[in-house]
Amino acid sequence: MNRNLLSIDDLSRDDIERILHRARSFAEVSGREIKKVPTLRGRTVINLFYEASTRTSSSFELAAKRLSADLVNIKSAGSSVDKGESLKDTVQTLSAYDPAAIVIRSPHAGAANLVARWTTASVINAGDGKHEHPTQALLDLYTLFRRRGSLDGMKVWIVGDVLHSRVARSNILAFTRMGCEVTLCGPPTLMPREIEALDCEVRYTLDGLEQADVVYALRMQHERMTGSYVPSLREYAAQYQIDSRRLSPHQLLMHPGPVNRGVELSSEVIDSPQALIVEQVESGVVVRMAVLYELLAGGPGRAAAGAPSHAGAETEPQPA
Ligand code: ASP
Q: Which atom number of ligand 1 is nearest to the Cα of residue 55?
């Protein structure tokens, strides 16, 4: 596997499967009272977040702490970024701490790739504009893998604002790599041109939704919209909202969060037993532990000093 995780395209199917299995071994650690292993003791992880985040930043933080890494959290608000420091200068400054990994979220597509050029640390893309969000895709795969075992042949419908969604892009790549059949559905104005090239089908109405095993709803990403893409949210909800009339009992429902209740999903489906939304959040910690492990301690020649030769899941937790 690569030194960095910038895109799902960096991962082969074997890499993905190894990460999912590793995440499962970390789930055992997360079930313990003391949820810590010494794998990354003495190594530094920097979380550099230039955009709002609840789930991704908290789960990367927990993942690094549960692996006993030293963690530095930097949010653009309140840092020298506010004083106009450039991304390059910020990364070069932080590199002086000799971090093992930099986790970067940015509103700009391609930011993680740039950071990877400016540091010798492993770089993990935690979302770059509307480009990619690879760890979200991995935690979604893991959530389904835990539920269903094999993902091969699973029919997944991704519904909503595909155009502005980095989650959609990473998930299309990830689901197809694992043998799922992907259908995208949304208004034509919110569908990227020639997206079919990614080996998925495109539909503009929910007709046929009953064929899906998994319905994956996306948020309307107002923060990335420059004009008006739908006549009104009411109109959008009337045509594309997943509600209890449209969701069949055999289907699983996913959403990356945060959810706009009453827009892409109705309240009753969010709180239904078919919804995996809370499980997706839970999966975030163990999958990000597995990614940090793979990049920093897992590959050939990368064993961390004093780290066990496996995930450390069977190791007795030691005081950090
Ligand atoms: N949390 C996801 C992201 O950062 C999805 C969203 O914001 O709608 O892309």
A: 1
Q: Nearest residue CA, atom 2 of ligand 1?
A: 256
Same domain, 141 and 274: yes
d(CA 92, CA 75): 16
Residue 299: its pLDDT value, please?
A: 63
Whether residue 165 sits in one domain with residue 44: no
Q: Kindly report the CATH number assigned to the domain that includes residue 234.
A: 3.40.50.1370
CA–CA gap between residue 175 and residue 33 (Å, rounded):
34
Ligand 1 pocket, 127 CB below 6 A? Answer: yes
Range of the domain at 198: 134-279
**CA-CA-CA-CA dihedral for 296, 147, 130, 241, to nearest 10:** -160
Quote the pLDDT of residue 5. 98
Q: Which of 54, 60, 131, 133 to mutate to test the pocket of ligand 1 (most atoms within 8 A of CB)?
A: 133
Tell me, yes or no, whether 123 and 17 share the same domain: yes
Q: For residue 151, report the distance from its CA to the centre of ligand 1, in Å.
A: 23
Confidence of residue 300 (pLDDT cuts 50, 70, 90): low
Read off the pLDDT of residues 130-156 as tens digits, 9 standing for 90 and up.
Answer: 999 999 999 999 999 999 999 999 999
- In a domain? residue 188: yes
Residue from 219, 221, 260 whose mutation best tests the ligand 1 pocket (most atoms within 8 A of CB): 219
In tens, the pLDDT along 83-101 reads 778 999 999 999 999 999 9
Using CA of residue 297, residue 303, residue 308, residue 309, what is the dihedral sign?
positive
Residue 308 placed within a domain: no
Residue 74, judged by CB atoms within 10 A of its CB (0-12, 13-18, 19+), counts as middle
Do residue 272 and residue 236 come from a single domain?
Answer: yes
Verify that 140 and 83 share a domain, yes or no. Answer: no
For residue 259, how far is its CA from the centre of ligand 1 (angstroms)? 9
Residue nearest to atom 8 of ligand 1 (CA): 219
Ligand 1 centre to CA of 165 (Å) is 7
pLDDT for 306 beyond 60: no
Residue 309 has pLDDT above 70, yes or no: no
